[in-house]
Please model this.
Amino acid sequence: MREHWRLYIFLAVPLVYLLLFKYYPMLGIQIAFKKYSIAGGIWGSDWVGFDNFKRFFTSYQFSRILPNTLILSFYYLIASFPIPIILALCFNAVRVEAYKKFVQTITYLPHFISTVVMVGMLFQIFNARTGLYGVLYNSIVGEYPADLLGSPSAFRHLYVWSGVWQSAGWGTIIYVANLASVDVELHEAAQLDGASRFQRVLHIDLPAILPTVSIMLILAAGNIMNIGFEKVYLMQNDLNRSASEVISTYVYNVGLAAGGGDFSYATVIGLFNSVINFILVVVVNQISKTVSKSSLW
Model:
C-alpha cells in the first residue's frame, strides 16, 4: 500500500461514493418495520414488526401490481434481449464498411431520445383522432379507431416495442466489440473447409459472444422487477391503469404522490422488490454457471 498509495487514492473516490450513496442509505430499510413519523424520524419511530408486510401481502393491490410487473418485465426481456445479438451478428457479416457504419448510426440514434420525448412521440403517432394512426385509419375506414393509448391490452405492446426500438441499436455495441476480437484465421480456415457464411456465424461468431451473452442475461435478470418508472408513469392513465400500475408507480403513489405519504408502506414494497431481484440474480447466475460455465461469481 505504501508503494502504490496513489492507486489507493484513486480507489478511495468510488469507495466513498459507494459507502455514502449505496450502503449508508440501507439504514433506512428499518422504516419498513416501523410506523414512520416525520416527528420521530427513522430512529425515533415506533416498531411495528411485520405489520406493514402483512398489510402489503393482503392488499388487493398486491394481486394486481405483482402480475403487471412480472408480465411487463418478462415480456420486455424476451422481446429485447435477442435483438441486439442478432443485429450485432448481422453488422459483423456486412462487408461494405460505409453501409455498415450508416446502419449502425441509424440504429444508435433512438437511444439518445429522452423518455419524455419518446412518450410524446407515442402520443403523436397513436392518438386516435389527431395522431398518424388515427388519421390514416379514418381516411381508409371512414371512422375513428379504438384508443390504443387508453387500452390496457395495447399498453404492454406499446411500452415494450417502443423500448426495443429505442435500445436495440445501443445494445449491439458490446457484442460488436466482442466480435471484433474474433481471430480472422478461424474464418479463413472455415472457408477453406467449405463452411458457408451462416455456418461461420453459427460455429465461430456465436460461441465467441456466448460468455458475454450469459453475463448480460444475468444482469438483465437482476433488473426484471425494476420496470422504468418514468416511461410507465408518463404512459399511465385512468383507462389503462389496470395493466400499467406496476411496483415502481405504486411506490410513488403510496409514498410521494398527493394523498400518499405512507413512507413505511412504500419502503416495504421497495424492499420486497429488491429481495426478488436479488433472488433472481443468484438463481440465473447459478443456471448460467452450470450451463455455459460463465457467471458473475
The mean pLDDT is 89. Strands lie at 34-35, 46-47.
